[in-house]
Amino acid sequence: MDKIEHIGIAVKDLEVSNSLFAKLLGVQHYKTEEVVSEGVRTSFFKSGPNKVELLAATNPESPIAKFLEKKGEGIHHIAFAVEDIVAEIARLKEEGFVVLNETPKKGADNKLVAFLHPKGTNGVLVELCQEIKAG
């Protein structure tokens, strides 16, 4: 794993939270994006080398809606940048981690993503992110 790519925060209202985080971080969000397959609308902030992703549910059956119902607003996941997501999934499976989606899928912010089950990572949902290269 190369670095922390971003921290994902589940929010009830993306517009309200965009305003709050703009005040907190002193910068405006640089991108909003909907990931239809996950039932989520995202907003990204960059503060120095760090990124924060706000996640709001677009339907009541989405993973974010279920998270908010169960736990309320707050940190949803931590994402790590990887160079080769397929190799990293294989390595982590060999180490005994449970991968929630063994085939990487298209996520927000031009990334391929896969998640590790939080039961094997001390309750933290871990996301692996690989930049999708043009061409």
TrEMBL record:
Metal-binding keyword on record: yes
Any one Pfam family match given in the protein's UniProt record, by short name: Glyoxalase_4
Domain VOC residue range list: 3-131
Keyword Oxidoreductase set for record: no
Known EC number: 5.1.99.1
Enzyme class: isomerase
SUPFAM superfamilies for this protein: Glyoxalase/Bleomycin resistance protein/Dihydroxybiphenyl dioxygenase (SSF54593)
PROSITE patterns (alphabetical): VOC
Key words, A-Z: Isomerase, Metal-binding
InterPro entries: Glyas_Bleomycin-R_OHBP_Dase, MeMalonyl-CoA_epimerase, MMCE/EMCE_epimerase, VOC_core
Molecular function via GO: methylmalonyl-CoA epimerase activity
Family recorded in the similarity comment: Belongs to the methylmalonyl-CoA epimerase family.
Protein name: Methylmalonyl-CoA epimerase
Organism: Flagellimonas iocasae
